[in-house]
Design goal:
Radius of gyration: 23 Å
Protein name: Cytochrome c domain-containing protein
Shape: globular
Order of helices and strands: HHEEEHHEEEHHHEEHHHEEEHEHHH
Keywords: Heme, Iron, Metal-binding, Signal
Strand order of the largest sheet: 1-2
Distance between the termini: 58 Å
Low-confidence stretches: 1-37
CATH topology of one domain: Cytochrome Bc1 Complex, Chain D, domain 2
Strand content: 5-15%
Number of strands: 12
Mean pLDDT: 92
Pfam families: DHOR
CATH architecture of one domain: Orthogonal Bundle
């Protein structure tokens, strides 16, 4: 009798799940795009007072590390440093994308993202270099890094292919490296339409990095399991990217591929500027004719001054850890209405408005609300946004839910900077296989006033 009842319940549940699964499949099918001009992006906010400031409540020592980190964050690198090019630090190249952290993370202040004028254009010939500007680098386009999806033998790649070399520079005599070949050209501003083996990323803003770092794994997992039925109905799943060593949740980068701010800093220093450091101690390019410095080029010294005692990557991490998140704009009727639309369409099921930090040694980071508008999970974004690159447990179509705090200041949108328009960015979330298809369907069914209110809310963040 008990077995019969269990079988009956299972059959009933199966009958219930079948139409729900069918409903999810039906709703997940993308609709035709909304009519052009159906909404208007109001554009970026003017930089508010306090943007780029440290977290409130830091101790004097923590504030000193923030300032030391900021100083290193903005300094330019050259091949041999101040001895050859005054005001620079050594270590640039042999291959690189730009010569400073703040060059990439500039909008609207140090720690942000791509500025309106792309510094990579002038970088091509800086200090006498003979680089050509790649087709995907435009004066009015975003800062980009390039990756090859596959190697010539067809095996998967995904690593950064730095665009510039130190050949011809006054501080790199004798170096004769050649730039990489990025294949057929496409649109230089959108980055679309070129060699399909080349994909792009733009800088992620690092505001509020310490608060994100201090969110416990369990808080991320609890949020992932919350509202499970609503997520199932909308076809939303998502999962954490995790460290292959200890299984803990990674959270920084477009695919949440980096565990900590220190790892994020060390990898970026090596990949973007070519500066070897304690985490990445070997040059990616080991041509002896282009080796000018002992390794690692960034290192800790045995002194007590916080400005010189610690390696650059330690100070970069401290700057990001203590950097405050942007404050949202004051509410207006349109912003309030847009916030409600953001919730009713289902955007909040991935862009979680608030998580919370755990206990931290830094009081300013301990048990604090984090209004990041992200669940820090990676989600399948479908074929339209797929870049073909896997990192950790994030697959070739998966990306971290981008934190939306500071969105009002961002000029270029999506992982590759293909658009400046929020409406276009929302539409790009829908394509075959995307977890956002149902949400975009709901967005397309909104009246024009609600769509405009949604844009007002997003640009207020």
């Amino acid at each position: 009798m008990w077995t019969a009842r269990c079988n009956s319940r299972r059959n009933a549940h199966a009958r219930l799940r079948a139409p729900l699964r069918a409903l999810v499949v039906l709703l997940a099918m993308p609709l035709a795009p909304a009519a052009a001009g159906s909404n208007h992006d109001t554009g970026i906010r003017a930089a508010a007072q306090g943007i780029g400031d440290p977290l409130p409540g830091l101790t004097a020592e923590e504030l000193a590390f923030f300032q030391a980190g900021l100083q290193d964050f903005v300094v330019r690198a050259s091949v041999q440093g101040d001895a050859v090019i005054p005001g620079t630090e050594s270590g640039l190249g042999p291959r690189f994308n730009l010569d400073s952290c703040a060059g990439c993370h500039a909008q609207p202040a140090a720690g942000g993202t791509s500025p309106a004028v792309n510094p990579q254009v002038a970088m091509a010939s800086a200090a006498g270099a003979t680089n050509r500007v790649p087709w995907f680098v435009a004066p009015d386009g975003p800062i980009r890094e390039a990756r090859y999806v596959a190697r010539p033998d067809g095996s998967r790649d995904g690593s950064v292919v730095q665009m510039y070399v130190i050949t011809g520079r006054t501080d790199a005599p004798g170096c004769s490296l050649r730039q990489p070949d990025y294949g057929a050209a496409g649109d230089p501003v959108t980055g679309q339409g070129g060699d399909p083996n080349v994909i792009f990323r733009i800088p992620t803003p690092v505001f509020g990095g310490g608060l994100i770092e201090a969110i416990p794994d369990q808080a991320i997992l609890d949020n992932m399991r919350a509202r499970a039925f609503a997520k199932m109905l909308l076809g939303i799943s998502g999962h954490p990217n995790v460290s292959g060593n200890d299984g803990s949740i990674t959270r920084f980068g477009w695919k949440a591929q980096n565990k900590s701010l220190l790892m994020f800093a060390g990898e970026a220093y090596n990949v973007e500027q070519g500066v070897t450091n304690a985490l990445f101690g070997n040059e990616r390019e080991e041509d002896p004719g282009c080796a000018f410095n002992p390794l690692p080029e960034d290192f800790a010294s045995f002194v007590t001054d916080p400005g010189t005692a610690h390696a650059g990557i330690t100070k970069f991490a401290a700057f990001m850890r203590f950097l405050a998140p942007p404050a949202p704009a004051p509410d207006t009727p349109a912003i309030v209405r847009g916030r409600a639309v953001f919730a009713s369409t289902g955007c909040v099921l991935c862009h979680t408005p608030t998580l919370r930090t755990g206990k931290a040694r830094t009081a300013a980071l301990s048990e604090q609300p984090v209004s990041l508008y992200s669940d820090l999970l990676v989600h399948d974004m479908g074929v339209g946004l797929a870049d073909g690159v896997s990192q950790g447990t994030a697959g070739p179509r998966e990306f971290r839910t981008a934190p939306l705090w500071g969105l009002g200041y961002r000029i270029f949108l999506l992982h590759d900077g293909r658009t400046r328009d929020l409406g276009d960015a929302i539409e790009a979330h829908a394509s075959p296989g995307s977890e956002a298809n149902v949400v975009v369907r709901r967005y397309r069914q909104l009246g024009s006033d609600d769509r405009q209110a949604l844009v007002a809310f997003l640009r207020s963040l």
